[in-house]
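chain below, 283 aa
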Amino acid sequence: MNTNTLPATVLAAKEKFELACKDASALQIVSNFGAAFTAVNVIALLREAMTDEVMDKVFMPLMNTKIGFLTDRNGRARSGGRAPLPLYTRDIVRDCIIDAVTIGLLPTGNQFNIIAERMYPTKEGYTSLLRKLGVKYFIDTSYDKGQTQNFAEIPCKINYEYNGEKNGFSIIATVKKDDYSSHDQLRGKAERKAKKALYEYITGCDFGDADEQSSVPIVDCEEKKRRPVGGCGSRRNKGRSECRAYYWGYRWATHTSPAGTNGRTNGAKRASQPAASTGRSRK
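prediction:
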């Protein structure tokens, strides 16, 4: 789109949107105690910029495109020949874009999806978030080790360097599968969960999973010595064991507990290290 042909109102909105994106970058700083004030300003700027006219001319055409963002309502017929669900409304898309921008994502490059009217960062989104934090990492993604028909369990080993600290841990990524799921698709989903786990491990921020209600909770942890990491509402408080029943969709295979504890929560069993694998992601 040639910006010179855009109406003046849209060009003014573009400046506000760019300013909001710039201000939102301050929210990505771990332990930013003024984040609430910045967030209010960012949201106000975005709502001023994203008028109905701007939504219709700029952002709605990006919906359900790879260059923009994907949703679970794409206008196609559903399984069993059922009629397609209506596309998401302007208001829902606006709210999801605001949610995305405030955490450092953009409405381009498939950095987030809209599923069940909520925004969820994609693998590309977590790649962008980790890059903005300056995290260097190496992810070794294995193959399905699970025995269930509808879910794959894929071990992922994560090594990273952040603020001069080198460390690593492992997870078992649980992802949904069906008869048409390929190994590459499953491992791509597992890589997303690994990046999500790394981002949460560093910042303490959890943006949820679209399929977490269909996954199974697994308790598993192992002792590993490391320094505590702070972050936005981090659950890793001093004096507490960092082993826990962790979320839906993946489990920790390696985690931390302070001296004097056995590194177990709710009777958690110690996991063995996953076998070496060939799938790798380095950043």
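Residues 219 and 267 are 8 Å apart (CA to CA). The two ends are 32 Å apart (CA to CA).
thats it, cya
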